[in-house]
Each structure stands twice: as C-alpha cells, then as structure tokens.
C-alpha cells in the first residue's frame, strides 16, 4: 500500500512562487495516476491538477491553468506542484493523491477517484 507525504507548504506573499512535494513510499509512483487537491477553510476539497501514469498528460483546474505545473521525478519517487503567481484564493491545505489507473492514458479530477491520500500541507498566501 502506497503512502504519500506532502511538504513545501508555507506562508508566501501574493505573486510569489513555491513548489510542493509529495514523496511516495511502498509503491512506484510512476505506475500511479496522481493528483493534487486543495481544501480552503469552510469549503470542499477541490481538484487542482492531475498527471497520468507513466506519461506526460496533465490536467488542470481552470483556476490554476497557466500558473501551476504538475510534474513527477521518477528517480526520487516524488510528485511536484509548482505554484507561480499565487493569489490569496490559493490559500488552502494541499493534498496529493494516487490511484491505480484503469488506463495509463487517463487523468482523474474527482476526489472519489483516488485510493491513497497524503496528510496535506498548508499554503497561506498573504496580501
């Protein structure tokens, strides 16, 4: 059973950049479809970005398209979320998630699609 651990969350200013990391143990990250979600106070956990297994197919929420980038370093068994030009609306706890894909070409944008979750990392954007 794969275990996920996020890190990299911090307090930043609007317009700054930061990178979140998600290290996997107990499984080979490249064989999983991966995703990033976030949950702001009082809101549902929402999709941010997804990456298919093995390949380079990415999907993004409209609110982060053009600002955030999802990537994976297979040698380090680590998933990343590069966050650029952050805004106050990006303040949330960020979670990475993994699932066994039905098809290696698929990305998944729904919370219930995922089998494994990390504990989350807090990102706070101050204005």
Description:
The protein is an all-beta fold and 127 residues long. The protein contains no helices and 11 strands. The strands form 2 sheets. Strands 2, 4, 5, 6, 9, 10 and 11 form a 7-stranded mixed beta sheet that branches. The chain has a 4-stranded antiparallel beta sheet with strand order 1-3-8-7, with no helix packed on it.
Topology:
Elements lengths: L2 E5 L3 E3 L4 E8 L7 E7 L6 E6 L6 E3 L7 E6 L4 E6 L8 E8 L16 E2 L3 E6 L1
Helical proportion, percent range: under 10%
What are the segments in which pLDDT stays under 50 over at least 5 consecutive residues?
none
Given the C-alpha coordinates, what overall shape results? globular
The tally of beta strands, per DSSP, is 11
Q: What portion of the residues fall into strands of 2 or more residues?
A: over 45%
Distance between the termini: 40 Å
Summed up, the helix count is 0
Sheet/helix structural class? mainly beta
Calculate the mean pLDDT score and round it: 96
- Report the C-alpha radius of gyration, rounded: 13 Å
Instruction: Note the main sheet.
Output: 7 strands, mixed
Order of helices and strands: EEEEEEEEEEE
Q: How would you summarize what this structure contains?
A:
The chain has 127 residues and is mainly β. The chain contains no helices and eleven strands.
Distinctive features:
single chain, 127 residues, seven-stranded mixed β-sheet, 11 strands, globular
